[in-house]
Amino acid sequence: MRMYEDLFLFRWEELPSVTEKFPGTGGFIRRQPEDFRVTELPSYLPQGSGSHTYVRVRKRVLATRDLVTALLHQGLREQEIGVAGLKDKFAVTEQWLSVPNRHAEALAALEQLPGVSILEVSRHKNKLGIGHLRGNRFRIVIRDAEAGAAQRAAAVLAHLKRTGVPNYFGPQRFGRYGTNALDGLRLLRGERVPGGRQLKRFFLSALQSLIFNALLARRITRGLFDRVVVGDWARKHLTGGTFLVEDESEAARAQALEISATLPLYGRRVRLSTGEAGSLEGRVLERYSLSWQDFGNRRGDRRLSRLSLGEVELGGSDEALILTFTLPKGAYATTLLREVMKTAVDEPQLVSQESNA
Length: 357
Hints:
8 helices; Pseudouridine synthase; eight-stranded mixed sheet; alpha+beta; 2 domains; globular; single chain
């Protein structure tokens, strides 16, 4: 029997794929930073005037946090620095940041970091906030794929266009060693965990995310990925409206990818599922010896169980297959790449409990 705490380590192999009958491309990503390009798609562009200076930067082999730290060293306070989202480190990425106008000169420090270029500077009336983005555009190179990789990728993508993509939280959410959710559990227990307030909030978010992944995995193994059941809180893909499923007549809309079930990121503001959906979710919480009340200090939210896949461009060759696609905010490119490649994309370097002690 697995140790209880092992349940809280992220492992790709415990999360079922929805394209298992299709062979994958194999291969590798991130052989070089330029193989993984991410461009942030903002919710709005700066209007050219206002109290905050906006800067669009390109960075290479740096995390968003590295940019924030550079600004902190210039005397800014954490709450004065605005970012819409966190971007991958081993990649080439573009994103916006903001600072109050009185600190605009501090932005020059960003270009002192190796691999950072300032692409655009403007102004806006408000600070850039977390979530102020529509999504991200990805250009991923898969190297050393198997023979026939392009045809395999095309078949997987065609299937996902019909069924949707599992909206799993990817390994980046759980840290280099896949242990962030375990640290979140320790915080719930009242144990001491190293790190500041912001990092501890991130650990608790990772715990919410791990439970979400487990809920989604259970639905997939029970054939409910492209369905809704009584008691689900479903969301319309086109408008974002959420409603309670009260009878089985919504099944057709789910299979047409017009609506999908949402699953809880448990917290005090989350409306609980009822009926069959509530029973499914309750059994997952029991497996982890948790209850929704354990998350009373978290605000909570509901997250779509699957993503509607937009246009994907396939190019390159089997030796260097290129995928270009767009995902909404909060979605992980690794969840799509895993379906295409059938490999443990960006699997954390899991460590033993002894080395965690």
